[in-house]
Amino acid sequence: MEEANLQQSNLIDDLQTQLLELRKKVEGFRVSPEAALVETPPNAPMASAVLWVDDTPKNNSYLIEMLQKRGYRVDLATSTKDGLGKADQNSYRLIVSDMGRTEDGNYHGDAGIVLLEELNKRGSKVPFVVFCSSQGVRRFRERVKALGGRAITSSTTELRAVIDEIAPPGFNFDQLQADLSAIAN
Fold it and tell me: Which residues fall within 8 angstroms of residue 107, CB to CB, at 6 or more apart?
């Protein structure tokens, strides 16, 4: 089963890569206007870790594994409180959040908004992406945009495109830090 899962993951990765390349060629595709809210600022953090906040992280295992294969450490948080704690203690290249979460036994349909608001209060400049249902996209798109969120989408392919822009493959941040340290010494 593990080998079949690995093969399926590799197949999905290959198909999504090919789909994104075709869309780039055909449409000049980056991220659809429906998903993209703001451009990533030029001073975006260059950390080698991603924070993923979702009360059911197993639903995102394919994308989390993809980031790990790219050399990113992926920290998982299952609540807003846990996500904020990790964001306070670590540097992140990207924060991905779901919108609705069950926290402390209660469902909070706007937990992603609460997280983004709190990060803004703390001065975070880390690109923030919401991955939620299509209903969540329709309901919260303008609010996420007003709060400076980078994107909101219900599409795995669109999320993959956003991740490709912010946390590209083939870039080893740990190696870059080691090289810069060597140059400085």
Answer: 100, 101
Residue 91: give its domain's CATH number. 3.40.50.2300
**CB 138, CB 171: distance < 8 Å:** no
Does pTM top 0.90 for this prediction?
Answer: no
E-only strand ranges, the chain: 49-53, 73-77, 94-97, 101-103, 106-108, 128-131, 151-153
Six-digit token pair at 67?
Answer: 């980031």
Domain count, the chain: 1
In tens, the pLDDT along 30-40 reads: 555 444 444 54
The pLDDT tens digits of the residues spanning 70-106 come to 888 999 999 999 999 999 999 999 999 999 999 999 9
SS3 170: coil
134: containing domain? 29-184
Cβ atoms of 81 and 118 within 8 Å: the answer is no
Residue 154 forms part of a structural domain? yes
Residue indicated by tokens 């993923």: 52
Given this model, what pLDDT does residue 63 score?
87
What are 131's two structure tokens? Answer: 């991955």
State the Rg of the chain over Cα.
17
Torsion 26-61-104-117 (CA) sign:
negative
Domain presence at residue 11: no
Question: Is 89 part of any domain?
Answer: yes
